[in-house]
Design a protein that fits this description.
Length: 125
């Protein structure tokens, strides 16, 4: 069940599972961990934009779309959601508990890393 923390809606594991099951285009899920963390285990199909690169992608985010940010424990993704909300994005949420609480399917490798050049690395290529 959703709850709010520091003005950011928190999505729990069950809600995230339901969002993934619908296959809907939104909310857009974004992993904000580091490359090595993502390569070790991530939710299949979820792209990586490391937290420290988020400001450089600010103009690339669709301000009308909804997003859920994911990290290891929920702290970095909370900070990303707060930062983007401060930048005027209104529909940003955080996955409370992060990957430490995720009990669903995971994949290893660099499946989908978003780079500055809009170049995508799939399966480490």
């Amino acid at each position: 069940m959703s709850f709010e923390e520091e003005g950011i809606v928190q999505v729990d594991q069950e809600e995230l599972r339901q969002l993934l099951a619908t296959g809907a285009k939104e909310p857009i899920l974004v992993d904000v961990r580091e490359l090595d963390e993502y390569a070790e285990a991530h939710i299949p199909g979820v792209p990586l934009i490391p937290m420290n690169t988020i400001p450089s992608f600010l103009d690339d985010f669709d301000r009308n779309a909804s997003y859920v940010f994911i990290c290891r424990s929920g702290k970095r993704s909370q900070n990303v959601a707060r930062y983007l909300k401060e930048q005027g994005m209104t529909n940003v949420r955080n996955f409370a508990g992060g990957m430490l609480s995720w009990q669903g399917e995971v994949k290893d490798g660099l499946e989908w890393v978003v780079k500055h050049t809009d170049e995508l690395y799939e399966d480490g290529k």
